[in-house]
Records
---
Amino acid sequence: MQCSIKGCPGVYEERSVVHTVRHKGEVIVIDHVPAEVCTVCGDVLFRPDTVRRIEEILLTRSVPSSTVPLYEYA
Ligand SMILES: [Zn+2]
């Protein structure tokens, strides 16, 4: 798929990314999230079902096992 950023010649390719999100004042890091990443500018797209899954993780998360709040997507 062609990149959605104006003037960018890149295309999106499926990759696994580390997603960092701010949730209720905390920084949450979720590892191994499937995303479409532009090969040129690095723009990241998530599919709607992936976005829903991330929201689920944020709502249902328990205390992370390490001092860094790192969550596994899968
Ligand atoms: Zn791009």
---
Amino acid sequence: MVTRSGFVALAGRPNVGKSTLVNAMVGRKVAIVSDKPQTTRRAIRGVATTDRAQLVLVDLPGVQRPLDALTERMQRRVERELADSDAALMVINGEEGVGPGDRFIAEALRRSETPVVVAVNKIDRLDRPRTVLALEAAASLDVGDDVFPVSARTRAGVRPLVEHLGALVPAGPFYYPAQTGSDQPRDVLLAELIREQVLRRTFQEVPHAVEVFVEDIDERGEDLMVVRASIWVEAESQKGILIGAGGRMIKAIGTAARHELEREVGARVHLDLSVRVRRHWRADEALLDRLGIE
Ligand SMILES: Nc1nc2c(ncn2[C@@H]2O[C@H](COP(=O)(O)OP(=O)(O)OP(=O)(O)O)[C@@H](O)[C@H]2O)c(=O)[nH]1
Ligand SMILES: [Mg+2]
């Protein structure tokens, strides 16, 4: 049997649901999700394997105007990954319709040689007439030959999209074993799961100032894992917010994150969290290297 395989980069504005869609296509959580824009910082590869095709889905940061060394790196990475992919999947938020940000991305994709497929996401929020309007707006972007209505949240329409992309990528062997979900090292995935719980509970500038770093993972026998992690922020005031009155906030983050880690590793987890101030980490190029944000 001839197999097909290829890299598919997801492009779209922040918050349109790219990471949620990657998780839906892979069939498990490989990328964290939040209602804050610019959640994704690294290019994460999620692997979706059917009987005939393997898609290496490159979840990318939302396309935006760079503000600092961090967002500049994120932006350059998006451009490199798109250039290196076999296909691009442009994701649009069907609930919000098409705007200048989408047109900017569509134009960049039209200039590239890469075949493009468009997914109109969040159709669970739309009735039929509004879905039709969203599909028409997507078609008016004049990018790619195919537009798929999907809900990454309910997974409606996700299967046909995976099948379509599977037929679009070139013939070739699989890149990863069929059961692989993602290429992330375990410490990075665990750090991201902790960051997700921080994002859920913080607002305004705090989510953007937070980075999580897993310092140490200690497996004590079959069913206990001790994870030591630091949450970095950029100012004392942010540290105060994360710790909360009487330590209530950090406790809530720790409890929720521990449950997520336990689900991921299939063992009991003891999570040791500390909050540290690390001024201007987002502007520190050497540090961004070490964090694997490249
Ligand atoms: N109703 C609904 N909400 C969705 C759907 N897909 C994603 N969302 C929500 O949209 C928000 C953003 O989702 P993400 O997957 O983090 O978006 P993203 O495009 O990866 O965002 P960045 O990484 O910041 O660029 C989250 O609150 C999701 O729960 C969907 O199909 N339906
Ligand atoms: Mg994302």
